[in-house]
Amino acid sequence: MTVVIGVDPHKSTHTAAALNARTNRTLESIRIDATLPEYRRLLVWAKRFPERRWALENAWGLGRHLAQWLIAHGETVIDVPSTATARVRELSRGGRRKNDNIDAAAAASVAALRGDAAPVEAEGPNTVLRMLDERRTNLTRQRTRTVNQLHAMMRELLPGGVSTDLTANQATDVLRRVRPSSPVERARKELARELVADVRALDVRLKANQQRMQDTVADSGSSLLDVVGVGPVVAARLLGRTGRASRFRTAGAFAVHTGTAPIEIASAGKSRHRLSRHSDRQLNNALHTIALTQVRMPGTRGRIYYDGKIAEGKGHKEAMRCLKRRLCDHVWRTMIADEQCHTSGAGSGGHSGATTKSCAAGSTPHASSSDQSLPEPAIDQITAQPAPAA
């Protein structure tokens, strides 16, 4: 008998429910505290079911610690989104009534039915890159806020302030020439010096963060850095937020996740296409950065493709959307190839649930706003090397 153990995690407690995968009937439940001794008690309780797997609601949130602990002890763990458990509760009970036991059983039910669930793997370099990317985002926001404060202070010290592209060295040179004439002016100058020191410290942290990103990407064996327009920061965002690329079975599924796959809408009796707003905007921003960099570099495959779309009569935004769609496929294929190379090198045979077959067949359609399908040769044209000179 296969048993799915659903877990509803909270900050201080976890509730688990064992569900018969064949009959969808709850067998037993247990409630534990979120501590290591209680984790061991939970595992001892679960061992009464020899054929078992775990389904954790929000395994990358409140359930992350328990999920990683179970994986370290050889257990199979599946991540179930909270939206999926909410649908199960609504359909099975006909209402919004819930408690911890109901949520745990709903998570197990989703996993038993092979619904919206994804396998959880042990944390690795991609997790490190995701944390570094989040840290860089926070540092960048803090630096922007500090620079804005410095601009406001300099505007009060000098008539008209200073230029918008102010650097720490420029601010230091300006402050050297400021001669305060009152205690208030001296206080302003001292505060401005403190803000300049803060900007310098943030610049050092951002530089160190980028170096750690580059080292981690290199250690992971990724070849994304060979793609034109992909630097350490963009590669870290792509790898960190994507995780295991093979969890997307096709390039089209990855394009939907990144928001580069156009969707058809009807307006005023006419059919047109636009990009989905329900996507990972950070990944979409990374792909936009790659496309923008290639367009700005004459001779790259991306620029040649962009010029071809412009010659067809498309506008700048339409051509950029087409380029992003093709770059999305190329990035996914690169990550899949790296993953398969790493897996085969580890001796597991390179098994992957994804397929590198093109997400569409046939020629490029004549959509007015973006490409709807991607023929195989066009995807391979956007490579890391510039086009040969004529």
TrEMBL record:
GO terms for biological process: DNA transposition. Residues 224-306 form the Transposase IS116/IS110/IS902 C-terminal domain. Residues 344-390 are annotated as: Disordered. It comes from the Bacteria. Residues 5-159 form the Transposase IS110-like N-terminal domain. It comes from Nocardia jinanensis. GO terms for molecular function: DNA binding; transposase activity. NCBIfam families: transpos_IS110 (NF033542). PANTHER family: TRANSPOSASE FOR INSERTION SEQUENCE ELEMENT IS1111A (PTHR33055), TRANSPOSASE FOR INSERTION SEQUENCE ELEMENT IS1547 (PTHR33055:SF16). InterPro entries: Transp_IS110-like_N (IPR002525), Transpos_IS110 (IPR047650), Transposase_20 (IPR003346). This is IS110 family transposase.
